[in-house]
Amino acid sequence: MSKAAEIDIVSVSKVYGTTTAVEDISLKIPAGTYCCLLGPSGCGKTSTLRMIAGHESISSGDVRLGNTVVTDLPPAKRGTAMMFQSYALFPHLDLIDNVAFSLKMKGVDKEQRRAKALDMLKLMQMEAYATRRPAQLSGGQQQRVALARALITDPEALLLDEPLSALDPFLKIRMRAELKKLQTSLGITFVHVTHSQEEAMALADLIVVMNDGRIEQAAPPRDVFERPATAFVARFMGDHNVISGRVTGNQDGMVVFDVNGGGSLAASGKPQEAGQPIDIAIRTDHVRIGAAASPGLGFTGIVSNIEYRGATVKLSVTGAGIGDFTVIVDDSDFFAKPVAIGDAVPLAWDPQDAIVLGRLHS
Length: 362
Known about the structure:
By secondary structure, the chain is of the alpha+beta class.
């Protein structure tokens, strides 16, 4: 039976002196969810994680774990466990004593805590190394020990601060699979801070994209990728072109707008007021070379760069008032009708592939 807890963050802010690190965020993380807090450095994701853990005080708002408001509780009384980026293992203790440390602090007798520590090391497939010290382990092994130490307290939620950042690329991918498997088998809530879009997409049931201390979007990975809520999310997740302009009108379920520097485009979305600023997103792999089927669903640009990527070819195209625009085309389509740097090429997309983005920061 899982003892996962829902985490409810209610109007939480964190202010350091005159700097607001986290600004009035609200978020519900359902019990048993793998949630990734994603964003660039300094966006407030680690401060948010540390406030859930109790390692950082909350300036205003509340954090609830299950039915308990934990805002003022110390970390050990919250039912959460935190795994730090540096692993923070004790160099002078063997793995059993490292893993058993929190139980020792709670006064659990030696035999009982060592037996439980060995069980946790078995779960991590590390029991063969039980008598070793941390310095005798690889990065991936140290990480497993840090996980065992965090999980020994039977937390309702495990909080992970960039847990894969110190590992080499091959090990990162392996540990990603292990984390997902572990979370599924334990059934507890995981909250994982990362700045890697790929990591968040691979692991999360819920991605929370943060920017400048605020939440830009909280949704399942496919929604974040297919329907980014804001220009920031579209740019940060990559694989989208963002075009900005001003609304001129609405026609046949499409919003028509002018881009800075001439040219008119259209996107599917709710009617917008003329004169309003607008951002739209178009997936890089949903653009084709060729004339647009109807006005506003394409433009002609100049090819500035071509990168062959095996199965696909990446074209960088510059358009008047649009700036840099990326097109990912199938390699067979490209080589059937190749283009060269300096060529003027018509680009087009379907109406449903141009989506109007929300504006969080006006």
